[in-house]
Amino acid sequence: MTIRELSKITGFSPSAISIVLNGKKGVSDETREKIRKALEKYDYHPSPKRAAAERNVLVMKYYKNGFFVEENQGFISMIIDAIEGQLRKENIGMTLTVMKSDLEQGLKNLDYEKYAGMIMIGTELRREEYQLMGDIRIPFVVVDNNIPSHSYSSVCMNNYENVRLALLYLRKCGHRQIGFLGSSMDTENFREREEAFRKLVHELELSFDEQHDYKLNPTMIGTHDDFLAHLEGDVTLPSAFFAENDTIALGAMKALKEKGYKIPRDVSIIGFDDIPYASISSPALTTVHVQRKLIGRQAVLQLLQLISDPGFSTMKTELTGRLVVRDSVRVLPQP
After folding, report:
1. Residue 102 dihedral angles phi and psi, to the nearest 5°
2. Mean pLDDT along residues 139-156
3. Mean pLDDT score of the chain, rounded to an integer?
4. From CA 331, how far away is CA 323, in angstroms rounded?
5. At 86, is the secondary structure helix, strand, or coil?
6. Which residues of 23-39 are buried (b: 16+ CB within 10 A; e: fewer)?
7. Where is the HTH lacI-type domain (predicted)?
């Protein structure tokens, strides 16, 4: 029997039971006595393995190809650092593991008895894989994917609001013709950003021509090579581009400069994420900052709530970022 199972039987929260087991303060004398009697009644004695598990959380990086989890210039590693820091504050250990490709088999092979809960980096999770998450036997929170249409707790950026920040700034700077630099590889975040872009260009009375919709390999070199090919011949570009992330923006900027375009004089670009390279590129990239540290901390807090309260409802948290103005967007002269 686990603490969670005992909690369901007795009605006491796992945290209250844990307090009594460890002889700590935090519950009334009356509650402490009731829990002690329940422990005796059900002959509950936590094994050393189970006791250790209650102070350890599994953090899993899952990826299909690694383009977004491993190669997005430290974006995910900063979230994991924040998760580790918050767990340390809570005096909880962390085990980091990587799961590749076969999610179904990987979840079956996990020894759930070792962990109180799990945080999954879900950036590269596909929609057809979401249902597999229902087989996880411990409390869990998904990070960087809101897992739509499924009752799983998650922490992610608010893609719609962040895209809106970017497009509002372009409009403020006088840009009305906006192009789209997207990924040729699908993720939930990219899907949401493109849907937001297409909706918002109409709401904000901007102009978007389908010929300016470029789907590019989402690595810096891949974007550079793909966009360079698109720039061959007689090409008419919009005054500004929105890029689905900074890696794509920076690769496109490199291609444009090789073709003789001046940024932002000839064309402006705004990114999404605010990765470290964005601030040292030439020109420095205007972008939307995603609150990576807050995402990591919030994931831990939600997981701890799920662990301590079996009846805690699913919570999906979306965090809005902030605009970081640098040098890649030109303010157009007013007519």
Report:
1. -85, 85
2. 96
3. 91
4. 16
5. helix
6. eeeebeeeebebbeebb
7. 1-55
Average pLDDT estimate for 278-306: 96
pLDDT digits (tens, 9 = 90+) for 48-99: 545 555 689 999 999 877 666 555 667 888 999 999 999 999 889 999 999 8
> What are the strands, taking DSSP E only, across the chain?
56-63, 93-100, 117-121, 140-143, 154-157, 178-183, 213-216, 240-243, 268-270, 287-289, 316-319, 322-324
Whether residue 313 contacts residue 289, with contact meaning beta carbons closer than 8 Å, is answered with: no
Closest CA to 214 of 249, 188, 175, 239: 249
| Cα 268 from Cα 241, distance rounded (Å) | 6
Residue range 94-135, pLDDT digits in tens: 999 998 878 999 998 998 888 999 999 999 999 999 999 988
In contact, 296 and 82? CB cutoff 8 Å: yes
Structure tokens at 263: 């940024």
Q: Cβ of 286: how many Cβ atoms within 10 Å?
A: 24
One-letter identity of residue 317: T
Q: Is residue 192 helix, strand or coil?
A: helix
**Closest of 325, 323, 324, 305 to residue 314, by C-alpha:** 305
